[in-house]
Specification:
- The complex is a heterodimer of chains A (174) and B (453).
- With 174 residues, chain A is α+β, with helices and mostly antiparallel strands.
- Helices cover 40% and strands 10% of the residues of chain A.
- In chain A, strands 2-1-3-4 form a four-stranded mixed β-sheet, with helices on one face.
- In chain A, a hairpin with a 2-residue loop joins strand 3 (151-153) and strand 4 (156-158).
- Chain A starts with 22 loop residues before the first helix and ends with a helix.
- Chain B has 453 residues and is an alpha/beta fold.
- In chain B, helix 2 (38-44) packs across helix 9, helix 5 crosses helix 6 and helix 16 crosses helix 17 (432-439).
- The two termini of chain B are 40 Å apart.
- The chains are: A alpha+beta (174), B alpha/beta (453).
């Protein structure tokens, strides 16, 4: 839900000395990302993706560093980052399991798929397994309605799932 | 009449012309060997205005949902002033039931790139951004590879065959979204492209005048652009020979439904998938001939004609003709993206309405109060009815709520709330008996009671 605001006003920001936005990332940004756009702000989403790709989540300190780099205020970058469901502002599991729950998937038995994942991982949607391997999430339409029910595990889409095949996929995800 | 030759699925094996199992990503060489980029070469031999006029003459209507004539949209651009102008390609396909652009990008990415190049030439746009949704990981990789091939063959980049546009080398970039349905709304997409939250803008000014970065911008859907190459190559008359023309006596100013269209069939059918057919095909034919009929021998109950925001067709509208006039004839919002979701007799329509309302309340961007609050209240009321705790007043409230939100009643900026509105209203109205029996706590007579739950 894009419009649910997250607690940022009173939160304490955990900091470390080493910057999250590394020189390599900046070099890549200058080489590949910034020249694409007439404004610096437009690089916000591509660079948030870069940061999340490197650390698997987006720490608040990284948002501040990104804002300084793009000559924006931290609140502008935070505003963008909190809008998009794919950006995690808290640590998450190594693999994020996104189970589609939109209409075609529900018609084709999504509830059983989700149940299978919950039983297998022992967590509810929104939670992470204690070993930090999986985070289970609901997601709206993955755009694969013809092969419903479907789910994304990490970046890989799994289609025409049954509870058994999904449990097997989770077993085999290393 | 069935489509004689595949157009967009020419290189993507699709029944009845081919077998879905044979689908493979078409490389640059294979694309060129099968008439690929010939449309671009023809476009480059014409002046930009001639190309725009040709697309206008073909009466190609946007395939992304609204059905706005593409050539007309292109002609809204102001005269060139030597400064930058942009193309934003809408590949943020997130409407439930829609998966046609995924198939196009998966298997024939160059047909999209050809359309982009033609549009950039015709409209004098120096930079194209393909806004692809974050969840399409594989499709992004396919596009990146195809784009690399296109740069190597001088479609884009320095020394491009398009020449200099606005004194710049034409470039095409992939811009990855991050999971927000509203970014498929054209101005929401532009905001997101600029690095902000995807909040739709108040119009006017329209994007053709002040779009991305405040400059003139054209926004087209993937399928619309993919159709441009074949149209330029084969001409407007060839395109207008397909699909459904105007009825006799209808003036030429009324847009018709020419050409083929990709139909995505999902839900309770034997052979779900993306098929290409003439606009105007009957839904019954689509389900029986292409979709392989209803699954498990069940009876048809309802279908969504084109993505859930368009509403539903009832049991007696099984023979509805799928064209751009469907809204007026069958009391739904329109053809939308032509993603048909088929539901059989065991489907619980209250559950369907609840799922749809949850989708819209989840995906509302939160900018306009009627949509943000209205959709989540509709979801709560429908959940209550589904649990069996609803009252007759809840049904009236549902209709009142859904009738008062949206860009058409004039209470919201964009059309997302109209989607909520039409989906909920058509389901409740067309299946009133089912809702009524649920709230009156009478024995539930529909077969849905013996459903999957």
């Amino acid at each position: 839900m894009a419009w649910i605001t997250k607690n940022s006003g009173s939160a304490t920001v955990a900091r470390r000395d080493e910057p999250y936005l590394t020189d390599e990332m900046k070099a890549k940004a200058e080489r590949e990302i910034l020249p694409r756009f007439p404004t610096k702000q437009a690089a916000t989403i591509p660079l948030l993706h870069e940061i999340q790709h490197a650390y698997n989540w987006i720490p608040m300190q990284a948002i501040e560093e990104l804002a300084a780099y793009l000559e924006l205020s931290a609140s502008q970058v935070l505003d963008t980052a909190t809008f998009y469901e794919e950006f995690f502002l808290e640590p998450r599991g190594e693999y994020t399991v996104w189970v589609c729950r939109s209409i075609s998937c529900e018609l084709m038995g999504q509830d059983k798929i989700l149940r299978a994942a919950q039983d297998k991982l022992g967590i509810e949607p929104g939670q992470t397994t204690p070993d930090g391997k999986f985070t289970l999430m609901h997601v709206e339409c993955l755009g694969s309605c013809g092969t419903a029910p479907c789910a994304l595990v990490g970046e890989k889409l799994h289609e025409c799932l049954t509870p058994e095949s999904f449990a097997k996929i989770l077993d085999e995800t290393k | 009449m069935a489509l004689a030759q595949p157009v967009l699925t020419k290189r993507i094996p699709t029944p009845p012309f081919g077998n879905m199992a044979d689908r493979k990503t078409v490389s640059y060489e294979q694309f060129v060997a099968s008439d690929g980029y010939k449309g671009l070469h023809r476009a480059l031999s014409m002046t930009p205005k001639e190309v725009v006029d040709l697309v206008k003459a073909s009466e190609l209507r946007g395939r992304g949902g609204a059905g706005f004539p593409a050539g007309l949209k292109w002609s809204f651009l102001p005269p060139e002033d030597g400064k930058r102008r942009f193309l934003a390609v809408n590949a943020d396909e997130s409407e439930p039931g829609t998966f046609k652009d995924r198939m196009l990008i998966d298997f024939d990415p160059h047909v999209l790139l050809e359309g982009i190049a033609i549009c950039m030439h015709a409209c004098r746009l120096d930079t194209a951004y393909i806004y692809i949704r974050g969840e399409y990981h594989h499709q992004r990789e396919v596009l990146e590879h195809a784009l690399k091939e296109a740069y190597e063959h001088k479609i884009f980049g320095d020394g491009s065959m398009l020449g200099k546009i606005n004194e710049l080398s034409p470039n095409c970039y992939i811009h990855r979204g991050a999971g927000a349905y509203i970014c498929g709304e054209e101005t929401g997409l532009l905001e997101s492209l600029e690095g902000k939250r995807g909040w739709p803008r108040i119009k006017p000014p329209f994007p053709a005048v002040a779009g991305a970065f405040g400059r003139p911008t054209i926004i087209n859907n993937v399928e619309t652009l993919a159709m441009v190459g074949p149209i330029v190559l084969n001409g407007a008359d060839w395109f207008k020979g397909m699909g459904k023309g105007r009825a006799e006596g209808v003036p030429a100013s009324v847009p018709a439904s020419f050409g083929p269209k990709l139909f995505g069939i999902s839900g309770h059918v034997n052979r779900p998938g993306v098929y290409e057919e003439n606009l105007g095909i009957k839904m019954s034919e689509l389900i029986e001939r292409l979709g392989g009929g209803m699954r498990n021998g069940k009876k048809f109950k309802a279908a969504v004609p084109g993505g859930i925001s368009m509403g539903v067709l009832s049991t007696d509208q099984y023979d509805a003709e799928l064209d751009f006039d469907i809204g007026k004839k069958y009391a739904c919002l329109g053809l939308g993206t032509a993603g048909v979701i088929v539901m059989d007799e065991e489907t619980d329509m209250v559950a369907v309405a609840r799922n749809v309302a949850r989708f819209f309340s989840h995906e509302s961007c939160g900018q306009c109060t009627p949509c943000r609050e209205g959709s989540s209240w509709i979801y709560k009321v429908l959940s209550r009815i589904e649990r069996g705790d609803g009252t007759t007043r809840d049904l009236d409230m549902l209709l009142e709520l859904s009738g008062s939100m949206g860009a058409m009643p004039g209470t919201t900026i964009c059309g997302l709330a109209d989607g909520t509105n039409w989906a909920v209203r058509t389901i409740v109205n067309k299946f009133w008996g089912e809702f009524e029996s649920r709230v009156k706590k009478e024995r539930y007579v529909s077969l849905a009671v013996a459903g999957t739950r």
